[in-house]
Amino acid sequence: LYSSAASDVYKRQVVLAIGLVLVIEGIFPLFFTQLWKDTFIRITNQKNGQIKYYGLLSVIIGIMVIFIGIY
Asked: Smallest Cα–Cα separation from 14: which of 68, 64, 66, 61?
């Protein structure tokens, strides 16, 4: 279905996307340590349903961003 070159480009994009997510995720605890800790504590004090809702919202927004980037 995909040529070898297209497959290599796809793999590279996936690796770059994962790397970018890790960099962005690491910026907050690195530069805003206390704020990150306080936020994390507030999140752990929420009910499971609330956390799942935010997770679902994040997934939906992420899918929308992906589709916007593709088209």
From this structure: 66
Q: Half-sphere exposure of 61 toward its Cβ, with a 13 Å CA cutoff?
A: 6
CA–CA separation, 54 vs 46, rounded Å? Answer: 11
**Alpha-carbon distance 9 to 15, whole Å?**
10
Q: What angle do CA 56, 67, 64 make, to 5 degrees?
A: 30
Whole-number Å distance between alpha carbons of 49 and 23: 28
Alpha-carbon span 50 to 7, nearest angstrom: 39
Q: Give the C-alpha separation, 31 to 13, whole Å.
A: 27
Residues in the chain with pLDDT values less than 50: none
| pTM of the complete model beyond 0.85 | no
